[in-house]
Each structure stands twice: as structure tokens, then as C-alpha cells.
């Protein structure tokens, strides 16, 4: 009897776990149709309706991986699509794949009024897709807009920003978006990340960015921005990352950046900052972990600013017109350093012996300077130690014979053997010191000077 009743009981338990506890409201038919329209626009080779049961009123129960629905708390309301993600990222996240002729259907920006996240990764690579105007009805709830590696997505940047005041993340990286940053960006007061790298943006950066007080990541790298960096960026005190590299910014690096006390990553490489030296205020940003200024002809000496920067792991000071000696304090304080680029400058003098304190740093590049003297430590401490192009540097014979050092040392000359003092002179001095008369006179003189 017990065995005969077990199966129905187990089946009932399974069904109660597998099925919702109450009937969830279905997705509206209009929103379901819009979803299929979008799916066919990104990949018309897949039979979406057959795969995902078009006859079922509730598509949310059997939707593709990248389609996420939300069910409201009140049962009389309908289900809502809140996330749409397209394009292969990994096997663990098998979003609906995009075909070579994928297009961006404007229905995306009109039909999904509760959408919180829209994500496209490598979907528009061949056939050109135009950036559509964003309608007010679309923008009410959108929090994340992410387009990555879509070079054929072409259109003005301002068209994508219209009415998107709820955005927390704006990531447009590696697309064909062009134009300037509009003043209306200041209305996105909830933004925490704005990554606009590797597009075709240009013009000056508006000072109105300073109103985005919650911003933690600002990445404008690899565009065509020009002019001066606004002093007002120093008001973004929540910033963790500031990347303005590979643009055409000019003038002086703003002193106001010293206010960014939470900053961990600063990249200003390959702009047109010049003739003002390495900013001293860098030493006043204690949480910095990575600093990149390479490719700006700032000139001057490397300042003594390292005492409070013990957490720095990577420094890029290549091709900056630097002169003078390398500060020994870098070796004393930068114990976590894994990369140091000082190559292609006009640095002179010795390599500080204190660099032996750096531990097992990954790479130190001092190529093509005017350094001189003996290499004071073993290159075994570093994965890559590049010293070529310094005619005045020399290396011990034993070090030069190590196979792993031959390339990184750049065929440095061998150091001459150190001068050994004359052994006869030493023996003569020793004999004098042990002569009783000399010893008596020396002790007498010492006593006289002590009394005086």
C-alpha cells in the first residue's frame, strides 16, 4: 500500500516544485510580436517562432536566453520584458546570435516600455545599421545601454541619448557612433559609468559632465576629442577610473584632478599635454594603482612624489621628454610595482640600487635613455628588464652570459673589473700599525686630543 501511493505523491511534489505556485500573467501579444520582429532582425536564419512556441500566450516561460521577463506583484498586470541581450559572449551566456546581415529594428526603441537593459555585442559588423532616435516612451525605465564591438553601427551620438534620464550605465565601445557630447548629458544624473571608447566622437568635452556626481567610470579613450580638459572634472569625486587616452587634448593637465581622492586608474596617454612636467598632485591621490602619461611631451624631471603611492602597480612614463636622474625613492616606496615604463626619454645617471627593493616586478623598461654606470641588480628579479639603447650602462660578465638576459639587456657593454688597492701598500700599513713605537705615539695623540 505504501509503495503504491509513493509514486503519485512524488509526482505531485515534483510538479509543485516545477510549476509556478500561481498562474503568471502572460506577455501582451503586441510585445510578443515585437520581440519576434527583433529576433528575426538580428538573425533571420533561425526559425524563432517554431523554436519558442509562438502558440503559447506566455512566451516568457520559454524565451531565448537573452530575453528576461519580470512579473509584477499584482496578478492582474501583464508580464514585462525587462532585459534584451544579443550576440555571442560565451558558452555560459548563449544570447541570441547575430547574423552577418543583422539590422537594428526601430521597434526596439518604441515597444518595450519596461526595458531596463539593452545589450548588443558584435552584432553589426558588415551590414550598416543606423542609430535610431530614442522615443520618450522607451526611455522611462532603461538603466543600461551597452553596445560593444559593432563597427557598422553608425549615427550621431546625440540621437541615442534623447530622454534617457534613467541610465546608470552607458557603454558604447568600438562602434561607428560620431558627433560631440551634447550638453543634455547633464540630465543623466544617475549615471555611474560612461564608457565611450573607440568611436568617432570629436569636439570639446563639455564642462556639464561635472554634474554627474555619481559617476565612477569615465572612459573617453580613442576618439577625436580636442581642446582643454575641463577643470570641472575635478568635481567628480566618486571617480574610480578616468581614461582620456589617445585623443587630442592639449594644454595643462588640470590641477583640479587632485580632488579625485577615490581615483584608482588614471590614463592620459598620447594626447598633446606639454611642457608642464609630471603633475605634482599625482602624489596626493593615495588610492592610485595605475598611472599612464606616456606620449605627452611634459618634459622636466621625475618628481619626488612616491611616498604616499605604495599601492601603485603600473606606471607608464614613456616618450615624455623626461630629463635628470631616476629618483631612488621609486625603488623604496613602490613595492607593489609590476610595470614601469621609462623608455625613450632623456634620463641620465645610474639605475638606482634601490630598485632591488621592487621585488619580482613583471617588466621594467628603461630603453633609449642616457643612463650610465653598472646595472646594480640581477635581472632575474624581473620578467622583463629592458635596458638597451643606454651607451653608458654596463653589465657584469656573469649576468650577460645568462641566456634569458641577452635580449632584454640590448647588448650592453661589459663592466671593467673593479680596481683592487695595492696589496703591498696594505701590508706596509699593517706593519706600521703593529710597530710598538708607532702604536704608542698614536695612543698618545688620541689621549691628548681627548683631553683637549
TrEMBL record:
Q: Which family does it belong to?
A: Belongs to the RLP family.
Q: Any signal peptide, and if so, which residues?
A: 1-23
Pfam families found in the cross-reference section: LRR_14
Ranges for domain Disease resistance R13L4/SHOC-2-like LRR come to 160-343
Indicate where this protein is primarily found. Answer: membrane
| InterPro entries assigned | Leu-rich_rpt_typical-subtyp, LRR_dom_sf, LRR_R13L4/SHOC2-like
Question: According to its record, how does it sit in the membrane?
Answer: Single-pass type I membrane protein
Cellular location(s): Cell membrane
Q: Which PANTHER family match?
A: OS01G0623000 PROTEIN, UNNAMED PRODUCT
Instruction: Kindly indicate whether the keyword Transmembrane belongs to this entry.
Output: yes
Q: Name one GO cellular component term.
A: plasma membrane
Question: Is Magnesium tagged as a keyword?
Answer: no
Q: What is this protein called?
A: Disease resistance R13L4/SHOC-2-like LRR domain-containing protein
- What keywords appear on the UniProt entry? Cell membrane, Glycoprotein, Leucine-rich repeat, Membrane, Receptor, Repeat, Signal, Transmembrane, Transmembrane helix
Source species of the chain? Acacia crassicarpa (northern wattle)
Amino acid at each position: 500500500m505504501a509503495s503504491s501511493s509513493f509514486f503519485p505523491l512524488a509526482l505531485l511534489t515534483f510538479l509543485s516544485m516545477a510549476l509556478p505556485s500561481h498562474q503568471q500573467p502572460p506577455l501582451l501579444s503586441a510585445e510578443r510580436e515585437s520581440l519576434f520582429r527583433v529576433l528575426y532582425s538580428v538573425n533571420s536564419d533561425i526559425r524563432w517562432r517554431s523554436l519558442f512556441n509562438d502558440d503559447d500566450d506566455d512566451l516568457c516561460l520559454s524565451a531565448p536566453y537573452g530575453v528576461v521577463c519580470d512579473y509584477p506583484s499584482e496578478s492582474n498586470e501583464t508580464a514585462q520584458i525587462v532585459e534584451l541581450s544579443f550576440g555571442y559572449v560565451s558558452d555560459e551566456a548563449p544570447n541570441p546570435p547575430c547574423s552577418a546581415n543583422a539590422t537594428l529594428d526601430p521597434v526596439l526603441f518604441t515597444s518595450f516600455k519596461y526595458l531596463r537593459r539593452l545589450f548588443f555585442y558584435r552584432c553589426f559588423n558588415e551590414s550598416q545599421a543606423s542609430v535610431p532616435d530614442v522615443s520618450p516612451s522607451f526611455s522611462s525605465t532603461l538603466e543600461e545601454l551597452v553596445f560593444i564591438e559593432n563597427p557598422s553601427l553608425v549615427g550621431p551620438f546625440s540621437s541615442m541619448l534623447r530622454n534617457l534620464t534613467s541610465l546608470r550605465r552607458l557603454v558604447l565601445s568600438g562602434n561607428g557612433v560620431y558627433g560631440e557630447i551634447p550638453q543634455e548629458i547633464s540630465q543623466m544624473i544617475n549615471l555611474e559609468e560612461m564608457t565611450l571608447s573607440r568611436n568617432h566622437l570629436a569636439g570639446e568635452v563639455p564642462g556639464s559632465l561635472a554634474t554627474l556626481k555619481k559617476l565612477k567610470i569615465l572612459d573617453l579613450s580613442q576618439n577625436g576629442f580636442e581642446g582643454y580638459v575641463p577643470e570641472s572634472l575635478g568635481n567628480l569625486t566618486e571617480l574610480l577610473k578616468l581614461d582620456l587616452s589617445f585623443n587630442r587634448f592639449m594644454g595643462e593637465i588640470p590641477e583640479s584632478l587632485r580632488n579625485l581622492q577615490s581615483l584608482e586608474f588614471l590614463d592620459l596617454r598620447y594626447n598633446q599635454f606639454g611642457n608642464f612636467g609630471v603633475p605634482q598632485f599625482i602624489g596626493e591621490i593615495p588610492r592610485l594603482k595605475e598611472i599612464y602619461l606616456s606620449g605627452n611631451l611634459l618634459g622636466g624631471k621625475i618628481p619626488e612624489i612616491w611616498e604616499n603611492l605604495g599601492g601603485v602597480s603600473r606606471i607608464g612614463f614613456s616618450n615624455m621628454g623626461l630629463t635628470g636622474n631616476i629618483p631612488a625613492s621609486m625603488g623604496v616606496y613602490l613595492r607593489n610595482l609590476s610595470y614601469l615604463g621609462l623608455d625613450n626619454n632623456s634620463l641620465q645617471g645610474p639605475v638606482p640600487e634601490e630598485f632591488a627593493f621592487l621585488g619580482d616586478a613583471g617588466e621594467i623598461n628603461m630603453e633609449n635613455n642616457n643612463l650610465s654606470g653598472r646595472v646594480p641588480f640581477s635581472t632575474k628579479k624581473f620578467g622583463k628588464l629592458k635596458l638597451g639603447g643606454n651607451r653608458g650602462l654596463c653589465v657584469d660578465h656573469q649576468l650577460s652570459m645568462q641566456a634569458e638576459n641577452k635580449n632584454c639587456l640590448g647588448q650592453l657593454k661589459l663592466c671593467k673589473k673593479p680596481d683592487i688597492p695595492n696589496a703591498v701598500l696594505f701590508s706596509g700599513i699593517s706593519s706600521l700599525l703593529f710597530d710598538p713605537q708607532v702604536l704608542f705615539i698614536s695612543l698618545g695623540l688620541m689621549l691628548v686630543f681627548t683631553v683637549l
